[in-house]
Amino acid sequence: MMEWTSLSFEEISAIFVKAGQPSFRAKQLTEWLYKKAVLDPADMTNFSGDLKNLLKELGSFSVLKREKLQESEDGETLKFLWKLHDGALLESVLICSDKRRTVCVSSQVGCPARCAFCASGKMGLKRNLSTAEIVEQVLQIESYLLEQGESVNHIVYMGMGEPLENFDSVVKSLRILTDPKLFGLSQRHITLSTVGVIEGIRKLSQESFKINLALSLHAPNQHIRKKIIPYARKYDFDELMTAVDEYKEATGRDITYEYTLIAGINDQPEHAEELAKLLQFKHCTVNLIPYNPVSGLNLEKPTRPDISAFRDILDDYEINHTCRYTKGDDIAAACGQLALQEVLP
Ligand code: SAH
After folding, report:
1. Ligand 1 atom closest to Cα of 193?
2. Which secondary structure element, helix H or strand E, spans residue 66, and what is its range?
3. 229 C-alpha vs ligand 1 centroid, how far in Å?
4. In the 8-state DSSP scheme, what is residue 33?
5. Ligand 1 — pocket residues by CB below 6 A?
6. What is the tens place of the pLDDT at every residue in 107-125?
7. Residue nearest (by alpha carbon) to ligand 1 atom 3
8. Distance, C-alpha 138 to centroid of its chain
9. pTM of the predicted structure, to 2 decimals
């Protein structure tokens, strides 16, 4: 059955017209869905019983069932685990810091990229998410926040999955989440993170919106990158760097390079030096993420002194960087970890 949260405003309008309904219904319904985050027609108080029934016959409203909600000790990270219609499990994370309310959405169940340090890859790819399954992660969390007088103001596509391998559903979700007539979040407040799918980056730069792009680089050269990211074998390093430069040129958005620091593999001064030379004149930000241990993976966290030395070298080259000491690691809120805990004994 068609899902209401997978449709553009124009598609919703067309459905009402076809059903012989007045055109203002599209505005009424989208206000319930996107401004009030109400996903149950029973709560749409300005609709008659007949209309509610008609809406339910025409499409489904909710595709995620909340299975679990976990809160980190500091209360800043909340992890939502959802069950999908086929029993698959999915997670989204809400990260609260100061006034920022960031939702980290998943784009696939599992992930095809199988990066050496990541929990999601251990599962492999189960399936792509539909547009509605992506959009509803934001709406369910919006509904949770609205009850406390707050609202989602940033979205990052950094949960489970590789968003550019589910291009069409992800792009449609971006249209819905940024359309002022629907969820209406500013494009500048949305970041898509990719392992580096060159053709996907090129296609994304041709879309009409200008969202931020984060590249999961994790290595200063192809040799090391190939060791930790199987996808690197498919793509030439220089060509990937150029594709990202072209994204910046086409959209005017600066790029973030994500770099998961793993002890002994990519966290030494020579790696920092090489990374700094690679990015020196790019006006970019490097987001350092100390490896967050995943059970069953034989990798080590970087030490504090190694992290500091790495950062000092980036400073020497005047490269903007942030270091994300993993938020919510007491609830295993790093990419894919909760769903994996549920799947693996
Ligand atoms: N497939 C996309 C988005 C999902 S991963 C991508 O590769 O960018 C989002 C980020 O989580 C990546 O930058 C990755 O480095 C980080 N990540 C995944 N597992 C991690 C772990 N165990 N420790 C630290 N960072 C991790």
Report:
1. 8
2. strand 65-71
3. 11
4. I
5. 113, 117-118, 158, 162, 193-195, 216, 258, 260, 289, 291-292, 294, 334-335
6. 999 999 999 999 887 889 9
7. 158
8. 10
9. 0.94
For ligand 1, atom 20, name the residue with the nearest CA.
Answer: 118
User: Are 41 and 47 contacting, i.e. CB atoms less than 8 angstroms apart?
Assistant: yes
Question: Which of 94-103, 310-319, 324-333 shows the highest mean pLDDT?
Answer: 310-319
Question: Residue 317 CB: number of other CB atoms within 10 A?
Answer: 16
The residue from 10, 91, 142, 258 that is catalytic is: 91
3-class state of residue 255 by DSSP: strand
Q: What is the pLDDT of residues 287-328, one digit of tens each?
A: 999 998 888 888 999 999 999 999 999 999 999 999 876 555
Q: What is the pLDDT of residue 345?
A: 31
Concatenated DSSP letters of 182-243: TT---GGGEEEEES--HHHHHHHHTSS---EEEEE--SSSHHHHHHH-GGGGTS-HHHHHHH
Helix or strand run (H / E) with residue 123: helix 119-123
42, 47, 49, 53 alpha-carbon torsion, rounded to 10°: -70
How high is the pLDDT of residue 57?
95
Amino acid at 235: Y
CA distance 161 to 195: 10
DSSP class per residue in 3-24: BGGG--HHHHHHHHHHTT--TH
Q: Is 133 a catalytic residue?
A: no
